[in-house]
TrEMBL record:
Its EC number is 1.-.-.-. GO terms for molecular function: oxidoreductase activity. The keyword ATP-binding does not apply. Pfam families: adh_short. Residues 7-187 form the Ketoreductase domain. It is an enzyme of class 1 (oxidoreductase). Belongs to the short-chain dehydrogenases/reductases (SDR) family. This is SDR family oxidoreductase. Keywords: Oxidoreductase.
Length: 245
């Protein structure tokens, strides 16, 4: 199956930012969606917005750090649509702070969300893709994996893990599956201001407001990877604002 129309796509972290924009973009192109995130009201607003424009989407409360939640997300695609064509692993948290602040809960959250969360998605979707003889993993990394900028050490390390896991998975995926890493630069989302460090959050929000690209730019990059013919794998897309050094 090529193109986007008719594909069954599950997206994690779909309640805001890049995930919500991707859901909207793909729904407009005719994808059938299963959307996961933890915040029920925000997720419902995305699902309702898509339905109001004639799209097809169902929301499933999902914490990607929980293996069973990812299983429920992929099972929902199978129940509703009879298949799962794409899993977009996008859930993330930009809880960056200097090491000296010892915000170890934030370090743990980034490891759990970006690494364990990604692995939970692979664990849930890979058997489905193998059974179908087709499937596409789209993993959202970051330009932080290309250049480490203080105080983003832990965030950059976990996004580097996303890059490495994606390449490892691609090498083992064989001719039937596709594996894509989408690495965004500064994107205008609420997540940018999520640091518990007030100065860091303020600086990142200032920078975001000066140079960031809209989340729709990342959504279009994800759509480009998905719409390729079955035998064509867009292995990596780096998309960043021109003003980002
Ligand atoms: P947002 O904060 O707007 O979106 C993050 C999404 O992830 C939300 O929907 C949130 O939903 C979800 N999420 C967080 N933790 C979990 C969890 N444990 N389980 C399920 N869902 C979770 O920020 P962005 O849109 O910017 O971030 C999306 C991705 O893009 C992240 O992986 C981020 O690292 C990456 N990225 C962002 C960049 C930027 O400049 N904005 C640049 C490069 C990469 P909820 O809280 O409802 O669960």
């Amino acid at each position: 199956m090529s193109g986007i129309a008719g594909k069954a796509v599950a997206i994690t972290g779909a309640s805001s930012g890049i995930g919500a924009a991707t859901a909207t973009y793909l729904a407009e192109k005719g994808a059938r969606l299963v959307l996961g995130a933890r915040r029920e009201e925000r997720l419902a607003a995305v699902v309702d917005g898509i339905a109001a424009r004639g799209g097809e989407a169902v929301g499933v409360i999902t914490d990607v750090t929980r293996r069973e939640d990812l299983k429920r997300l992929t099972d929902t695609a199978l129940d509703r649509f009879g298949r799962l064509d794409v899993l977009v692993s996008n859930a993330g948290t930009m809880a960056v702070s200097p090491f000296d602040e010892l915000r170890q809960d934030d370090w743990d959250a980034m490891v759990a969300t970006h690494i364990t969360g990604l692995l939970n998605g692979i664990g849930a979707a890979l058997p489905v893709f193998r059974r179908q003889g087709s499937g596409h993993f789209v993993n959202v990394g970051s330009t932080a994996a290309h250049v480490v900028k203080s105080p983003q050490g832990v965030y950059a390390a976990t996004k580097t893990a996303v890059k490495v896991l994606t390449e490892g998975l691609r090498q083992e995926s064989g001719p039937d599956l596709r594996v894509t890493l989408v690495s965004p630069g500064f994107t205008h989302t609420e997540g940018v201001g999520r640091s518990a460090s007030p100065e860091v959050a303020a600086a990142l929000v200032r920078q975001r407001d000066e140079i960031a690209m809209p989340p729709s730019a990342v959504a279009a990059a994800i759509g480009f990877a998905i719409e390729q013919p079955a035998g064509v794998d867009i292995s990596e897309v780096v998309v960043r604002p021109t003003a980002q050094g």
